[in-house]
Every structure is written in structure tokens, then in C-alpha cells.
Amino acid sequence: MPLEGEYEPSPEKWVRDQVELFEGSGGTEGTTMRGMPVIILTTLGARSGKIRKTPLMRVEHDGRYAVVASKGGAPSHPVWYHNLVADPRAELQDGPVRQDMTARELDGAERELWWKRAVEAYPDYADYQAGTDRVIPVFVLELA
Ligand SMILES: C[C@H](OP(=O)(O)OC[C@@H](O)[C@@H](O)[C@@H](O)Cn1c2nc(=O)[nH]c(=O)c-2cc2ccc(O)cc21)C(=O)N[C@@H](CCC(=O)N[C@@H](CCC(=O)O)C(=O)O)C(=O)O
């Protein structure tokens, strides 16, 4: 069941522009960053209840996805992390395909497995983690 609410674009122009290009092209443009694949994660704002859309690096394995709350290695989690913690329902758009998903934050061995897959997909994640004491959260997204 798709999430319902009023869409509130990101305050970051480069982010909302990528969402606009990605969705406006039906998932055929704006689907990469520096040549590496990107997905769009839709969450519900934990306070506003608004629809939030967040481009993230694509981490996929056997039809399952992970999303990494790296925020470039910043000392604090991205705000969308708190949205997923408050309400794990999400939508994931990978190219033209949009799926309703449920997010589950990982820890222990399962997180290590998906962290390895994430770094394979986007090596900069390793540098982000090396640069912060914050443990960068990883969620697996499973079909709702
Ligand atoms: C700027 C801020 O964004 P954020 O949710 O902190 O997310 C920061 C970034 O992670 C986000 O911009 C990502 O899209 C950046 N980003 C990646 N960010 C990552 O963390 N990981 C990635 O792999 C990643 C890849 C990526 C690829 C392309 C691209 O264009 C951007 C990419 C934001 O949108 N703030 C809003 C609020 C958003 C929000 O959800 N508010 C909640 C409140 C939640 C609360 O306060 O508890 C609500 O509406 O209720 C605002 O200030 O108005």
C-alpha cells in the first residue's frame, strides 16, 4: 500500500533535483551518482507526517535491498533515519520499479554482512565510517 501524504521536497537543492529527475523520467534518468546506481527511498516524516523522498546508493542482493544512513560520515544520523525508526513502512524505487517495503535496522553479524555488500556497492561508505565515531546505521528493506 503506497504511503499517503503531502510530498515535501528536500531543502537541499541537489537532492530534490535528483528526485525530480529520477521520478520525472520514470526512473530512467538521475539514477546514478558518480556513475554508481542510486535508488529513491520514500518515508513518512516522523513529526510532520509528510512524504519525504531520499536518494540513496543502491545496495541490493538477491532482490533484497539495504539503505545506509551515512550522511557523508556526519556526526549525526540523517533525519530520514528517524523517520524509518518511527515508522518502518517505506517505498523503494529502483529504476522504473517501485515497491512497498518494510525497513528493519540491522545489528551484529547481519549488519556486518550487509555493510560489506554496501561498501562493495559504494566504497566511500568505508571512508565515511572511518571518519566518525557514529556507527552508521544499516536497514534491510523487505517486501511489505
Ligand atoms: C536535509 C535533510 O535530509 P536528511 O533526511 O537528513 O538526509 C540527508 C541525506 O542523507 C540525504 O540528503 C540523502 O539523499 C543524501 N544521499 C545519501 N545519504 C545517505 O545517508 N546515504 C546515501 O547512500 C546517500 C546517497 C545519495 C545519492 C544521491 C544523492 O543525491 C543523495 C544521497 C532533510 O531533508 N531535512 C528536512 C526534514 C526532513 C524530515 O524527514 N523531517 C521529519 C522530521 C523527523 C524528525 O525530526 O524526527 C518530518 O518531516 O517529520 C528539513 O530540514 O526540512
Which properties best describe this structure?
28% helix; alpha+beta; 4 helices; globular; eight-stranded antiparallel β-sheet; 144 residues; binds coenzyme F420
Summary?
28% of the residues lie in helices and 33% in strands.
Structure description:
The relative contact order is 0.20. With 144 residues, the protein is α+β, with helices and mostly antiparallel strands. It is 28% helix and 33% strand. It is built from four helices and eight strands, in the order H-E-E-E-E-E-H-E-E-H-H-E. It has helices at residues 13-24, 79-86, 108-121, 124-130; strands at residues 32-33, 36-44, 51-57, 59-61, 64-68, 89-94, 97-105, 138-143. Bound molecules: coenzyme F420 (F42). The site of coenzyme F420 has 27 residues, from helix 1, strand 3 and helix 2.
